[in-house]
């Protein structure tokens, strides 16, 4: 149980295009989802927290107009990288808040490798 | 503010030997959770072990065990009988947040020598 599916796993696109990444909770309702960015050999950096039906809360320094987050249902959150440029190339990971923190606080997707040419 | 510190960027161990990864944290909370996550080259995030702060007993999961020192705010991970499959990045993480937001350490790259 508690599976989070993230799609696509790898995307390559041209500079200037927009890219949408989907994060779905397959067998549970995710009231809260998290979006992370991970640079090579570094830790996970929280970009934003999204709650179903409300606006996402962005971390300091994250451009909300660049990284659009939508959490329209209890099973789906999306991250859209708008007008992507090579500096947006990175590994992006989503996760969904668990029901109980003692077992596992967040259930993670397998990540998306984004390459902007 | 809560912080998590992993002071070892890289560790190496001979296969079948034991290795300990260090983690310290800073918090003013009394009730919280600590975790060790493994991230292999596939980049999946895999929960290795968890510790509830109110529990005095150190958590163990097969070859993985922790040394939880609450007063010292220390949470080290011991891997016994290291295997090649243990090679990965290991992240220490903390949460006391009602949203279960995790605070992450910088990570330790573990190399297993055959």
Written description of the protein model:
The complex is a heterodimer of chains A (117) and B (114). Chain A is mostly beta strands. Helix content of chain A is 0%, strand content 52%. Chain A has strands at 4-7, 10-13, 19-25, 32-38, 44-51, 57-58, 67-73, 76-81, 90-97, 106-108, 112-116. In chain A, a hairpin with an 8-residue loop joins strand 9 (90-97) and strand 10 (106-108). Chain B is 0% helix and 51% strand. The chains are: A mainly beta (117), B mainly beta (114). At the A-B interface, strand 4, strand 5 and strand 9 of A face strand 6 and strand 10 of B.
Jot down its keywords.
heterodimer, A: 117 residues, mainly beta, seven-stranded mixed β-sheet, four-stranded antiparallel β-sheet, 11 strands, B: 114 residues, six-stranded mixed β-sheet, 12 strands, globular
Mean pLDDT of chain B: 96
| Beta content of chain B | over 45%
Question: What would you report as the Rg of chain B, rounded to the nearest angstrom?
Answer: 14 Å
- From N to C, what is the helix and strand string of chain A? EEEEEEEEEEE
- Give the count of helical stretches of chain A: 0
User: How much helix is in the residues of chain B?
Assistant: under 10%
Assign the structural class of chain B, choosing from mainly alpha, mainly beta, alpha/beta, alpha+beta, or little secondary structure.
mainly beta
Low-confidence stretches of chain B: none
């Amino acid at each position: 149980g508690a599976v989070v599916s993230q799609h696509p796993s790898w995307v390559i696109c041209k500079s200037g295009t927009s890219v949408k990444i989907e994060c779905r909770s397959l067998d549970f309702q995710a009231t809260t989802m998290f979006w992370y960015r991970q640079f090579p050999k570094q830790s996970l950096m929280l970009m934003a927290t999204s709650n179903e039906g409300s606006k996402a809360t962005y971390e300091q320094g994250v451009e909300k107009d660049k990284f659009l987050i939508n959490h329209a249902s209890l099973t789906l959150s999306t991250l859209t990288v708008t007008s992507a440029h090579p500096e947006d190339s990175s590994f992006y990971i989503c996760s969904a808040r668990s029901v109980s923190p003692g077992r596992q606080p967040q259930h993670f997707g397998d990540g998306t490798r984004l390459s902007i040419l | 503010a809560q912080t998590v510190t992993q002071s070892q960027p890289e560790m190496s161990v001979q296969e079948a030997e034991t290795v300990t990864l260090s983690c310290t944290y800073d918090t003013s909370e009394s009730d919280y959770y600590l975790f060790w996550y493994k991230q292999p080259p596939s980049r999946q995030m895999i929960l290795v072990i968890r510790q509830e702060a109110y529990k005095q007993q150190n958590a163990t999961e097969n070859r993985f065990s922790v040394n939880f020192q609450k007063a010292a705010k220390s949470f080290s991970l011991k891997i016994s009988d290291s295997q090649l499959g243990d090679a990965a990045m290991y992240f220490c993480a903390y949460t006391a947040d009602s949203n279960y937001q995790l605070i992450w350490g910088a990570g330790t790259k573990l190399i297993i020598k055959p």
